[in-house]
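Just scan my protein:

——
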Amino acid sequence: ENEYALQSSLSQLKGSIKNKIIDIRNKIIYHTAFIESALDDPEHIEIDGYADTLLEAAEEIIYDLEEMISSADNGRVIREGINTVILGKPNAGKSSLLNVLAGHERAIVTDIEGTTRDILEEQIRLGDLSLNVIDTAGIRQTEDVIEKIGVDRAMEYAGKADLIIYVVDASRELDENDEKILPLIKDKNTVILLNKSDLDTVVTEEMIKKKAGSICSGFPEEGETKKEIPVISISAKEEKGIEKLEKKLKEMFLNGIVSFNNQICISNVRQKNALADAEESMKKVVESINAGMPEDFYSIDLMDAYEALGSITGESVGEDLVNEIFSKFCMGK
């Protein structure tokens, strides 16, 4: 079993998810109880100006929920491995890269363009990462029926990938085939490899960034702070630069996204849907506040969020609200 899948399970068993949700529910029930208490006893509990306090709290809760929802896909990646697609034009070195990553000759490598016509799949362990790697047919305009099917499949797999490794033949000028590939990496986790560094190269990091920036939004334009797609120089033939690729992937999928120290990892579809319901209810709270709606409107959506989160932890509303009102605001005493 994938080491990280095991750690994810242990993390969940230790209750990191439940504890986080309980914390959010406690915040929600507190604010709901305050509103209900103030509406019932306006002489003793002042509610004027409370909307600003609630707005800040609601936005923090929405942020936390979004973080947990985004971890759902990460949970699948941890359990099943990173679905990785290798893209590039013919003879860019995709199959050579697959062989290097696999540690054995998985794909046939020749100087003849279009050798790989179908999809090759290999599960690869790269350091602490598990990659489900798919080597695709070189993307180019072709009249060959079989090769065209391979190209179409490559584009289809790219759309479903968790990670795209785009292999560029740095010894050849960028051409229309590269322009056909670049839109496929838009909005994808991508690493661009400038392959064949052992030869005289004509494509630089600056060139590929400029080309990509003119075709897709994967690179920041002037004045933007969008995260850049990493570009790494390698030689698949001489197995150089692979350690840089491994380091970059760890940054992307471990340090940047998944950390098992106090990591919250949602890996259940039902849980994800419940979080989405809670988030939607909290957004309605924000909308009501911004629209100047009466305070009782806030309580309805707050309790909807509370119930949605309770469905994850197995806790119902029950007398929670009543207990919170009596314990925190001394109603009836």
Residues 105-117, 218-225, 256-264 have pLDDT under 50 and may be disordered. The longest strand covers residues 120-126. Residues 3-77+263-329 form a domain with the Four Helix Bundle (Hemerythrin (Met), subunit A) fold (CATH 1.20.120.430). The chain has two domains: 3-77+263-329, 80-255.
